[in-house]
Design goal:
The chain has 279 residues and is an all-alpha fold. The chain has 11 helices and no strands. It starts with 9 loop residues before the first helix and ends in a 6-residue tail after the last helix. Keywords: Cell membrane, Membrane, Transmembrane, Transmembrane helix, Transport.
Length: 279
């Protein structure tokens, strides 16, 4: 069939229609607005949420409107309930992550540099590393109850193995030339660790810590949903029992925001510590 009108193929028409530059004003540089692109998807999600609640596609008791969730958020702040639960959760996370990260770093380095430690602990380490953390919850509840010790142990397990594995891989992957330089200069053990081992292992270890921190936060909220008397997860579970889905959504959004903030914070620390690395 012969085309009518402009002699332009269908693919070219589609390219022209989808081109932003045809509709974008020349006086407004597109590159300057690129930092705002990260907010497009959250704004679109919020708009869909608002429209779905307004049209009542889902009953109001199940999907409250964004305005109702915002009002509940302000009420929780004014009553102090949100701050109390959040401080408890973050304290648990800080303690569990600290213990797990330090112990994982030490064990990971020992597994990498000591054949004896690797011979005695290597197999057990690999087997325990592949056991999902949440699977241990019923057994740990029976052994430790639902107190703070139970939650800290769960967090330590969630953090310990990723950090230990990252440290082990980092030490094993140190370039052989670095080690030879240390031997040529006859560096003392402390100087070897400070000038060769530490700089070579910091980047992968920080990546492992960042992954472990995100995993620990998610597991903490899940544990608080199941067995806790305080915390963000417990606040969400109590609200669910009271059919307060607006408070549940406050907890859901807050969980995502905190997890995102923790990840970005560790990324910032990683960039600052890596300034010494050559390009």
């Amino acid at each position: 069939m012969k085309s009518i009108g402009f002699n332009i193929r269908a693919g070219e028409w589609l390219r022209l229609v989808l081109s932003w530059r045809l509709l974008w004003p020349g006086w407004l540089p597109l590159r300057q607005l690129q930092p705002l692109a990260v907010w497009v998807s959250p704004a679109a999600l919020l708009l869909v949420w608002y429209w779905a609640a307004r049209q009542q596609w889902v009953p109001e008791q199940i999907l409250p409107a964004p305005a109702a969730v915002w009002e509940s958020f302000l009420d929780l702040i004014n009553s102090g309930e949100l701050q109390d639960n959040l401080s408890i959760s973050l304290f648990r996370l800080l303690v569990g992550f600290g213990i797990g990260a330090v112990s994982g770093l030490l064990v990971g380095v020992l597994l990498a540099i000591s054949p004896g430690v690797r011979a005695y602990l290597g197999l057990t380490f690999e087997m325990l590393r592949h056991i999902p953390t949440l699977v241990l919850i019923p057994m740990l509840i029976l052994l430790l109850g639902i107190g703070e010790t139970f939650k800290i142990v769960i967090l330590v397990k969630a953090v310990f193995f990723p950090v230990a594995q990252a440290a082990t891989d980092a030490v094993r992957n140190i370039p052989r030339g670095f080690i030879e330089v240390g031997r040529v200069y006859q560096l003392k053990p402390w100087d070897f660790y400070r000038t060769i081992l530490l700089p070579a292992t910091v980047p992968p270890v920080l990546t492992g810590m960042r992954i472990a921190l995100g995993r620990a936060w998610l597991i903490l909220v899940a544990v608080e949903l199941l067995a806790a008397d305080a915390g963000i997860g417990q606040m969400m579970e109590f609200a669910r029992q009271m059919l307060r889905l607006d408070i549940v959504l406050v907890g859901v959004v807050l969980t995502g925001v905190i997890g995102f903030s923790l990840d970005k914070s560790l990324r910032l620390v990683e960039r600052r510590l890596m300034r010494w690395r050559p390009e």
